Structures are given as C-alpha cells and as structure tokens.
Fold this sequence. Notes:
By secondary structure, this protein is an alpha/beta fold. 33% of the residues lie in helices and 11% in strands.
Amino acid sequence: xxxxxxxxxxxxxxxxxxxxxxxxxxxxxxxxxxxxxxxxxxxxxxxxxxxxxxxxxxxxxxxxxxxxxxxxxxxxxxxxxxxxxxxxxxxxxxxxxxxxxxxxxxxxxxxxxxxxxxxxxxxxxxxxxxxxxxxxxxxxxxxxxxxxxxxxxxxxxxxxxxxxxxxxxxxxxxxxxxxxxxxxxxxxxxxxxxxxxxxxxxxxxxxxxxxxxxxxxxxxxxxxxxxxxxxxxxxxxxxxxxxxxxxxxxxxxxxxxxxxxxxxxxxxxxxxxxxxxxxxxxxxxxxxxxxxxxxxxxxxxxxxxxxxxxxxxxxxxxxxxxxxxxxxxxxxxxxxxxxxxxxxxxxxxxxxxxxxxxxxxxxxxxxxxxxxxxxxxxxxxxxxxxxxxxxxxxxxxxxxxxxxxxxxxxxxxxxxxxxxxxxxxxxxxxxxxxxxxxxxxxxxxxxxxxxxxxxxxxxxxxxxxxxxxxxxxxxxxxxxxxxxxxxxxxxxxxxxxxxxxxxxxxxxxxxxxxxxxxxxxxxxxxxxxxxxxxxxxxxxxxxxxxxxxxxxxxxxxxxxxxxxxxxxxxxxxxxxxxxxxxxxxxxxxxxxxxxxxxxxxxxxxxxxxxxxxxxxxxxxxxxxxxxxxxxxxxxxxx
Length: 638
C-alpha cells in the first residue's frame, strides 16, 4: 500500500471512528460565529527593504550539452540491493487516475458507522476500534496507528461535533474530484473582486543583456529530522525511516542511512542542512534575498507534538540565520509547521486547545528579525503579510494552509478563512493603483490536490484579474522540480496568464536528490518588468556523497532557458514547453530527470505517468483536471 493510499484509508478510519464518539463540548461552541470582524484593509508597508540591485544579467549562463555531463550521475555508487520503485505513485488527476476505491471506502465506511452512532462511547473505545482496524488491514503498525489517533483524534472529534454535512460531503471536500458526487453547496463561496476595470493587456519588451538583476535563493521543504541516525534502517515499515526505532520491511536486507540523507522515506539530517547552507553561502555570496517556502518539521506525523515542532522550527531558523546573518529572508508557513500536521484552525476557533494563535505568535517572533513591525498584525491574525522590496516592487506571502483539504476545521466552515483572500485582493488593488509589480510566495500551490477546490478557484480568478501586477508566484510542497500554468478563466486552453514555480525540496523524501533553486529577477532600471529572467536548480548525488570520506558535491543541474530552449520565462513559453513535451519524448524525459534531480531511484514513467505530470503542469486550479486536461487526455487516447 503506497503512502497516498495509506493517507486516504487512515483519514477514512479517523472520520468513521470519530462518528461513534459522544458529543465533545468545545469552550464557547454555543456562541461560535464564523464572521470575521477583522479589518483586512490594514496599512501597507511602504519602506523598501532591499538595497538597489548590484549585478548585471549576463547570458548565456552555460551550455548544458557542453559544460555539464550528468547522464551517468551516481552509477558507480548505486547499491544493487536498494529497493527501486516499480512505478511512480500517481497524483490525483481526475479521470486520468480512475481511482474510485478511496472515495468509495470513505463513503461506505463513514456511512455504515454513521448509522450505528451510539451515545456514550468513550474515546478509549473509539481508539481501540480504530487501532484494531488500522492494524488488521495492515495499514500501519500498532505504534503508528495508535500515534495517529492520539495526534489527530482530539482535533477530529470536536470537528465532528460542529459539522453540519454528512459523510459524502466530507469525502468530497477531502478527496476532491476523484469523488464523483456534486460539489458541496455549503462550501461554495466567492470573494468579490473590485469593479475597477482590468487594465488593457500590453506586452512589455524583454530586458536586454547587461541589465541589473536580483539574485534570489529559494529553499523549500527542509523537513529537518532531529531523530535522524546514520546507519539506521532506510527501508522501514513506518511512514518515516532512518531512526533508531525504524522497523525493517519484511523479507528485505537492511539498507543503512547515509551521513547526508537517504533516498527512501527519510528526511534531512542536520549534517545535510548545515552543508547546504554553508555551500550556498560560499558559492553564492551575492544572494540579494531568500524565499523560504515552508515545511520545516519532518514527516513523523504520528509522533509529533507542538513543542517538538517548535524546537525544529527554532533550530532550522538558527541554522539559516548563522549562514545568512545579513541577508533579507522572506518566509511562508508550511502545512507541517502545525501539530497535528496540516491542521490550521480558522480565526473563529478561539479555544486554546485547538487554535493556532500560539503558533502564529511564535513564528511571528521568529520572523521579526527579517520583517518590519507593521507586518505583525497580519502574521498574528493569519500568518500572511505584504512588504515593499523596492520602489514599485512588492512581495506578498500567503498562508496556503487555509486551503489545505486535511485541515480538519475547514470541514466546519471553509469560507475565506481569516479573510485572507479579501486582504490579498485589497493588497493587489493598492499595488495596481500604485503601479507596483508583485511576487507571491506560499507553500501549497493552488493547483495541488491538497488545496480545496473553492479556495483554489477564487485564487485563480484573483491571479487572472491581476495578471498585469503579479509577475511570479513561488511555492514548494510537492518536493518535485516543476511548475503550474494559469490560463484565462474563460478558456482553459487559451492564453497563459501566469506561472507558479514549484521549487525542489531540500529533503530527499522520497526518491529525490536534495536541491535548492536560484532565480534572476529583473532589477532596478527605468523599464524594469520585475519578471523572472532565469532560474537554475542546484543539487548533488546522495549515493556518491554517502561513500566513505565523501561530502556533497553541489553542482548546477540546469538553467531553465538553456535546458528547455525557452526564449524567456514568460507564461506562454512554459505553456509552449508543455505542448512540445506532448510529442517530444526526449524533451519530456529531460524534464523528468530534473523533476527528481537525477535520482537513481526515480521510478519509471510510462505514458500514464507522463500524462499525469503534464496535466499537473497545466493545472494551477485544483480539482478541475478533467476540464483543464481534456485535450491532453485526447492526445494520449485516455
């Protein structure tokens, strides 16, 4: 059973078992109001945080064919006993992945047990039932099943007490378009866009070679594991390996964890993070600013506490600050920062046992050394903020956990949590009125299957309305090296309007080589566009680094324009790349090699896998893949 199926089944079990519980009171639940009285029209930061760009763009950076030979990377170090995936775990892709079992399991299980709801059932009895089913079906071990309930049960139970929807609606909200039922009417909502007309579309001239640029670092999904132990089992039964208690998978020879990380279900050791940061500081001393797009704690979601997650956050921030004491850093919050992972209660949940206010206070204090004081209000309210980088150039960090489908409290009410999208529209309108260009950062990309459909749809409309103002979007979460294209809302096969860059992860979890991303952004000159002019991915080969006496050899894997023969990094060029990859298998395999950063354990990719990936690239709007990718399905005859 793969990780995705495990998540689906465990989610269903939690939901159906919690429906057996007695009503659990929440402090003040009788007075609960979903209205947000917060004034989202807050004062905007108007003092530029960056110095003038000091370097010029010189192209080409290098030639992939002549200067970089990576086809044989890691061949000499490959362990013949390693477990190689036989296929790539499918992402959700509507009719592309005709997987009905997860939704059926959710509907059937919740429905059957919903009919047997009895009052007075204790939490201990519910836990015993959950663990018994979880272990009997070999979903996870006893300790993991027990830990999952202990971690998530106290959140799911009170959510069930407040919910007004039934099992089919719950499954639809969590699993999205793989459930064929209608959308949930009570969770359909829209945020109003201003009546101010959208500016006429104009095509600006590409910056010339020699113009000033900003050099920008993006790091994402560090997933620092305090409990990583070199030599521990990498091929374990648990969802996360490389720990002293990791249990060897039945019938396999143990594969020891390397000093710098491991390809299987292992997160980042401290040695990897320190080495990467030191290497970046040495090889790239001219970084102008850093985008840090979240997910600091590891993937041991059954074994986490708020205190341990805060410890990971504090230690990771300390490592980054040590490496870059004087470099501006702009963070976004990831879904793993909370405990339970992914659970971000909206503003209306004020009960201290469930509220994320404490987390927001803590990260606000951690970010205070990088951000101006007037960002405190929005960070404490919803972990989002807006800052002016240079005159006419703004950065907005959004909290995408308010669209996360496994944020349980959204099952109660998902309408624009914390008024974030209203605030975002107000910020973008002010930016448009002031002729500012904007970059947006977040963690979960809007096209991710983890992002609720209605939130994603509203965000998609916002991006299209402000396409002249928003020049780039930056995310993480998927761990892959990829992107998402936005299209005109009225015709998904027509003009591309924006592109979101999904940076590769630092963690190797799972089957990836660690990596970071460098961007070159149009700098300070009279006709600046503030668009991304080039990006490059840097990585190293774990197999080679883990040989005795070796260290990571970080190298530039590729630059986008050279690798994919792009004339620019504008949205239409990325759309054209997708169209070219449909017919050009060699070009797609080059993209796929970079997707995993040349990992020797990258799973094989057949035509269905290729269709899934290309559809992901076209889908910056979640749970509409059948609509967005209909032409692709036709081309692949699927």
